[in-house]
Queue: 2 jobs
Job 1
Amino acid sequence: MEKEPNEWGPKAWAHLSAVRAQSPLIQCITNYVSMDLVANTLLSAGASPAMLHTIEEIPDFTPHVRALYVNVGTLSANWLPSMKAAAQLASQLGKPWVLDPVAAGASGFRLNACLELVQLKPTVIRGNASEIIALSRASVGPTKGVDSSHESMDAMEAARCLAEASGAIVAVSGAVDIVTDGRRVVGAHNGVPMMQKITATGCSVTALIAAFVAVDPLHAFEATASALSAYGIAGEMGMSMAKGPASLRMHMIDCLHGLDQAALLSRTNITALS
Ligand SMILES: Nc1ncnc2c1ncn2[C@@H]1O[C@H](COP(=O)(O)OP(=O)(O)OP(=O)(O)O)[C@@H](O)[C@H]1O
Ligand SMILES: Cc1ncsc1CCO
Ligand SMILES: [Mg+2]
């Protein structure tokens, strides 16, 4: 798609600069697979991650965070109460919180957990296409586990419906990252396909969304699109040095850390889809 100069590059730069300047504390209740990449992604962007998930600590700790990130990737019955308690407290305190509904359609337990979390008013929900379709239809279905069996564009209507029904900003990752508030829909066109070959890149971009929303909670739609673009650009720049997924993982962290204004202004590619 032809890239037009627009206001998105400066917006993305303003968000990344604010994260670097403020270093917002982000509480992450995330899956075992993703913990390392999520923490390193947040640190390389300038945010301050803390992987605290025990229910006993939530009343003391969650009130001090700038945003909460909840990811159900390795969900078990004893983690769900922590996720719900932290989400409920964040909502009560007016703090942004972001949900990653990993493999939402894989089982009834997982789907119900995600639906209960959605009831607690996440600011943003980011999933791959299959996850957003399962959540929007509230149905368990044939799924490839944590990977998507749909293209992001197939989930545009599901995303819009979920955003309308939940009041959250909904983002669908893929070749085109879709962001909607139920009315506006934009597509972020950065990134490279090899990002799918590194586990937890999706989890990490959701965490980055939490950091961007933390510094601009009143503009969660813009913060979400900006985070997806910045991460995609880090992937593009990293790809020029990578030999495969393992080195891309390393170069992406370096490129996010070094991302400058010129690169964001020239590469950010967000277009209206509605
Ligand atoms: N075909 C593609 N082209 C460009 N970028 C892509 C493509 N597919 C995914 N991405 C990017 O890769 C990142 C991860 O997206 P993906 O849809 O794979 O998440 P996910 O399935 O939730 O991953 P995980 O569960 O492993 O964390 C996003 O930043 C997305 O923009
Ligand atoms: C592979 C995997 N399994 C559960 S969570 C996770 C990380 C990517 O979502
Ligand atoms: Mg995922």
Job 2
Amino acid sequence: MNNEKKYEAVNEQVEGYTQDGQPGIEKDMDPKPVIIADDYKGSGKLEGKVALITGGDSGIGRSVAVHFAKEGADIALLYLEEEEEDAQYVKMLAEKENVKCLLYSGNINDADFRKETVNDVVSTLGTINILVNNAGVQYPKKDFLDITEDNLRETFETNIISMILLTQEVFPHLEEGDSIINSTSVTAYKGSPIFIDYSSTKGAITSFTRSLAQNLAPQKIRVNAVAPGPIYTPLIPATFDAEHVDQHGEDTPMERRGQPAELGPSYVFLAAQDSSYMTGEVLHVNGGDFTAS
Ligand SMILES: NC(=O)C1=CN([C@@H]2O[C@H](COP(=O)(O)OP(=O)(O)OC[C@H]3O[C@@H](n4cnc5c(N)ncnc54)[C@H](O)[C@@H]3O)[C@@H](O)[C@H]2O)C=CC1
Ligand SMILES: CC(=O)C(C)=O
């Protein structure tokens, strides 16, 4: 079975599965997302590198973590406490690739936690070469007036404010050739009637990526982003009702949701020297929605 057929087969089994609020837990998902293609072969593209991946326990971040491990990077994952088992699973997969994997559970919105995490990664693994800013939350609301101030503040705090603050924490350790990759979203480009606040944070992430890329270009530190379309991750059953979960991705030109396995290679490309002449760019992995780019 070719990879796309395998993804379609998983998609067909989804059938409106939901979870009870964020954070979504990958170990409870049935069917499980596909993290990496069976025929993916690492070729040492990230050997000797150290990557810090936020939200690296599950979904897109898990796929990034496993691809980076396949490419020889030591990795550190930052995630919420409720996701410990998901993170332990990623650690087990990474260690099978003979790389180190450090785990940091806590809230990215806590300044001490950010600082302690970065200091510990650097003292244990020597440095940080790649920062993947991927943690995010979303609270879909049909009615504009239903967006609560608490949800609005949490969405901005988690998705963009802490992204910038964590990047400031990591920046002093980055050197020429190192790279930052941010997870934005197709909703930053298309807008979304149910994600007015969330899509605003994703628009901010795109602008942050472009602006920081210009600022850091003289130091030869590259800053790029990936804009996923609808991807089957714990975030989806944790935040959508069954009908929306079922339909997720049907409105793309490819008429299907994506699997995390279809995202990981883009992050490898942006982290590796293969993309050495790219900065401030966004890769759109969205099932063919090229008008949203
Ligand atoms: N699944 C999708 O269809 C799409 C996802 N994205 C983005 O991809 C990124 C990853 O999400 P997914 O893999 O889909 O879901 P996910 O639920 O697997 O990952 C989100 C991760 O964010 C982390 N997180 C959230 N709040 C946190 C906090 N306060 N402190 C520490 N960690 C926190 C959690 O570890 C969680 O695992 C997010 O930024 C999301 O907005 C973008 C477009 C589409
Ligand atoms: C959550 C999100 O960004 C989409 C495209 O579903």
